[in-house]
Design a protein that fits this description.
The structure holds 2 protein chains of 2 kinds.
Chain A (H helix, E strand, L loop, with lengths): L4 H11 L5 H21 L8 H12 L4 H12 L6 H27 L9 H9 L15 E3 L7 E5 L18 E5 L5 E2 L9 H15 L2 E6 L9 H8 L15 E4 L1 E7 L2 H4 L4 H14 L1 E8 L3 E3 L1 H5 L5 H7 L3 E2 L5 H11 L8 E6 L8 H14 L2 E6 L12 H6 L5 E4 L3 H14 L11 H6 L8
Parallel strand pairs in A: 7-8, 7-11, 11-12, 12-13
Antiparallel strand pairs in A: 1-2, 2-3, 4-10, 5-6, 8-9
Chain B lengths: L14 H10 L6 H13 L3 E4 L6 H11 L4 E5 L6 H4 L1 E3 L1 H10 L4 H4 L18 E3 L1 H7 L7 E5 L6 H13 L1 E4 L3 E4 L5 E6 L7 H6 L1 E4 L5 H11 L5 H16 L8 H14 L10 H7 L7 H5 L3 H18 L1
Parallel strand pairs in B: 1-8, 1-9, 2-5, 5-8
Antiparallel strand pairs in B: 3-4, 6-7
Classes of the chains: A alpha/beta, B alpha/beta.
């Protein structure tokens, strides 16, 4: 290669914290040549010098942003509009291989952490720094992924310090890491889940109220039309000695937003979240918000609106009675896709969508992206509650979270009911358009004061 | 491509910087365009922009010049364009007068350009008429100019081959004068409507950008910026109608340029800043701004107008 592309790739690779520069460079070039070969097989006329230009362009744009990489390769490898279709087809696979390989090189260098070595937990604790609170979740790093994107990918995240209420895999013998996969088995909802405490219910109520009273863009007509507000006129006339100078009219009130709750009930979420708070959230949303709909998903999506509405204080029992299962694998993108197909009317531009999920998606990233863009386009706002985001070290860097984060108006931590109170506080004071999210949580900034993301 | 090592004036232009300049000049560009253009600037490679007529290809070149506050040198290509028209010509009249003024002195002066006698030759600087390509190479402003080679597909293949020398090395040889090379290569933007395929050699030297017809949202944004006098809801209706027209199988689909013309026409015909919805009658009277073929215009009937009217209403609802 002429020029100085090496340094460029290494520099970019360094930004991505990929330590083995040589392996990373070789991997990038191998995948690039593979892409070019695939394009030529599809009769795309890729000039001989295009690989050099493409490598130079990659060195410029870096490897972190899929969109920029795509634009760079499109500009350098293609020279006719007719070839775009072949490129569109080949690029996702290239990107997947590229990122998977780089992730693998990166994690291999960091040693056995998430994948479960003997000293895995020790590493993690020291990395966490201020993680003294046993309630705080240890894991905020992207999970290690292995497999080749054929749907049988397995993710392992350390869950030794699980929440007491979600400690369901203690007997599995695999204490350090539990396997989550896209095809995990599910079970009936555990009816023994305790009901939420009084304080918990108050926090959940506050959150649901904060969402349900978000003003919509439309205004509801005042009940009596734009009539004179007699009481207001009388009150105002007191200032002018009883003479009504101005006649105030009844103000139209803004309509409320509807709510659509999408709850990830995969094993990984159930192990890290307070289940009673989760069920309380579902129940209170269904009963308090306007036209609320509640969906549960792991590998499949089921609507649970009716069940939780009729729950009467026992959502777990109601869900069990409705034969709802939970605890399977996670295919978030697939769930959104199913929602789009089976219940498209659940989301419209007067709806605020609340997703409860840890974002550890093991499905096809394309599907996830398509799903979240659909949701974000269609809904008035998307709020994401992530049980992992209560950790001060949390960054939305897992593949799933980094895909959805740009489309989400507010990403909050939610492992127990108190976290909802904090989210509600932020939404009440700043609204969903303002700077809200896990990064503005004062508890996080307090515990990560020495270099955390203090906004 | 020896210029690779030469200092490039736009080496450090970031995407954010470029986006801001586009923003300032009201050019609405998608992410792909921004990345590709910034790559072309950073790598110092010409940018070949293809796309349907009226999709803003030429505008991109103008925008770059305006955004970087530099000179725009435009070379409009046409069939029969020769190197002389594009590069340089000798001022024959002046040469003739000079020769007549100093009878008999030509033979000794027009020898080798490097023998030091060039200053007094009739093939010197003062007799040279710069055409766009040479001007782009010799410009001495603070910043390199933007060289816009418009509709390269209209020029002959011979001319295209000649362009290769310019684009690969940013230098040209003038036999009587010597080699002219650019100290700072210009930003080169070539546009093509793809009326014929370009040579591989030319394509190989360029970064390629295919400009798609804009989405409804993008077009709405463009109209709002470029025709601010038009009410936003009416602008949405305008874009809705154009989008609906593009669904029809017309001989000549309306491009963004046509949309802007029409939006200006609608704004001009309205009183003040009226936000009345578009009427069927209004669409029919001004459809000439969008459809430029007699056959296409003749296909506009009451049914199509109704459909367009519906599309306008839907579009207005969509942005509400």
């Amino acid at each position: 290669m002429a020029g100085d592309p090496d340094s460029g790739i290494e520099r970019r690779a360094g930004e991505e914290s990929v330590p083995d520069f040589r392996a990373a460079r070789t991997h990038v070039l191998t995948e690039l040549f593979r892409l070019i070969r695939d394009l030529r097989r599809e009769n795309v006329d890729v000039p001989a010098s295009a690989s050099q230009d493409a490598a130079r362009a990659l060195a410029r744009v870096g490897l972190g942003d899929e969109r920029r990489v795509e634009a760079a390769l499109r500009a350098t490898l293609l020279s006719a509009a007719a070839d775009a279709a072949a490129f569109d087809e080949a690029f996702p696979e290239f990107w997947h291989r590229l990122r998977t390989g780089l992730d693998r090189i990166g994690t291999a260098e960091r040693g056995p952490t998430a994948a479960g070595g003997d000293d895995a937990d020790g590493d993690r604790e020291s990395a966490d720094g201020g993680a003294d609170d046993p309630d705080l979740l240890p894991d905020a790093d992207p999970p290690e992924m292995d497999g080749d994107g054929d749907g049988r990918v397995e993710v392992r995240i350390p869950t030794e310090r699980r929440r007491a209420s979600g400690d369901r895999a203690a007997a599995s013998g695999d204490a350090d890491a539990r396997r989550y996969s896209a095809v995990g088995g599910s079970e009936l909802v555990d009816a023994a889940t305790p009901a939420a405490s009084e304080a918990g219910r108050a926090a959940v109520d506050r959150f649901v109220d904060a969402l349900a009273t978000l003003p919509g863009r439309r205004r509801r007509r005042a009940p009596a039309g734009p009539a004179v507000d007699a009481r207001g006129a009388l009150r105002a006339s007191l200032e002018t000695g009883g003479v009504p100078v101005e006649l105030p009219r009844t103000e139209p009130t803004p309509s409320e937003l509807r709510c659509c709750l999408l709850v990830d009930v995969s094993g990984s979420v159930l192990d890290t979240i307070d289940r009673s708070a989760l069920l309380a959230l579902a129940e209170r949303t269904a009963s308090r918000a306007l036209d609320a709909r509640v969906f549960l998903f792991d590998t499949d999506l089921v609507e649970a609106t009716d069940a939780v509405e009729r729950a009467d204080g026992d959502p777990a029992g109601a869900l069990r009675a409705a034969s709802v299962e939970w605890g399977g694998g996670t295919r978030i993108g697939h769930a959104f896709e199913t929602l789009r197909r089976s219940a498209p009317n659940a989301v419209d531009r007067r709806t605020v969508v609340v997703v409860v999920s840890d974002g550890l998606d093991v499905g096809d990233p394309e599907t996830l992206e398509a799903g979240i863009t659909w949701l974000a386009d269609r809904a008035s706002a998307v709020v994401w509650l992530n049980p992992l985001a209560v950790s001060p070290a949390f960054e939305p860097s897992s593949r799933g979270m980094s895909t959805v984060a740009p489309y989400v108006e507010g990403l909050f931590g939610f492992a127990e009911a108190d976290d909802l109170a904090e989210a509600a506080r932020q939404i009440e004071t700043r609204g969903l358009g303002g700077s809200v999210g896990y990064q503005h949580d004062p508890r996080r900034t307090a515990s990560a004061a020495d270099g955390g993301d203090s906004a | 491509m020896s210029d690779r090592t030469a200092a490039r004036a736009f080496d450090s232009v970031t995407e954010a910087d470029l986006r801001e300049r586009f923003e300032r000049t009201d050019y609405v560009a998608d992410d792909r365009t921004v990345t590709t253009v910034s790559l072309a600037l950073q790598l110092g490679q010409p940018l070949l922009v293809e796309g349907p007529p009226g999709s803003g290809k030429t505008e991109l070149g103008k925008t770059l010049a305006a955004g970087f506050d530099t000179e725009l040198i435009r070379l409009q290509c046409y069939e029969g364009l020769t190197a002389e028209n594009a590069l340089y010509e000798w001022n024959y009249t002046k040469q003739l007068l000079a020769v007549q003024g100093e009878e008999g002195s030509v033979a000794g002066r027009s020898g080798s350009p490097s023998d030091g006698s060039r200053g007094s030759s009739v093939f010197g600087e003062e007799y040279l008429l710069e055409r766009p390509l040479l001007r782009a190479l010799r410009t001495d402003g603070d910043r390199p100019p933007v060289l816009l080679i418009d509709e390269i597909d209209r020029a002959d293949e011979a001319f295209e081959a000649f362009l290769l020398e310019v684009l690969s090395d940013f230098q040209v040889s003038i036999p009587e004068y010597g080699t002219v090379s650019a100290d700072r290569p210009p930003i080169v933007v070539l546009t093509s409507n793809r009326t014929r395929g370009l040579s591989d050699a030319l394509k190989r030297r360029c970064l390629y950008l295919h400009v798609e017809p804009p989405s409804f949202e993008t077009e709405h944004e463009i109209v709002r910026r470029k025709v601010p006098e038009l009410d936003a809801a009416v602008a949405a209706e305008v874009c809705g109608v154009v989008a609906a027209l593009r669904e029809e199988s017309f001989l000549k689909q309306p491009g963004v340029a046509e949309t802007l013309d029409w939006a200006r026409a609608v704004a001009r015909l309205r009183h003040e800043e009226s936000d009345e919805p578009l009427s069927t009658d209004e669409i029919e009277r001004t459809i000439g701004c969008l459809l430029k073929e007699a056959e296409d215009v003749s296909r506009v009937d009451a049914e199509l107008l109704d459909r367009l009217h519906d599309a306008a209403a839907n579009a207005a609802d969509g942005i509400e």
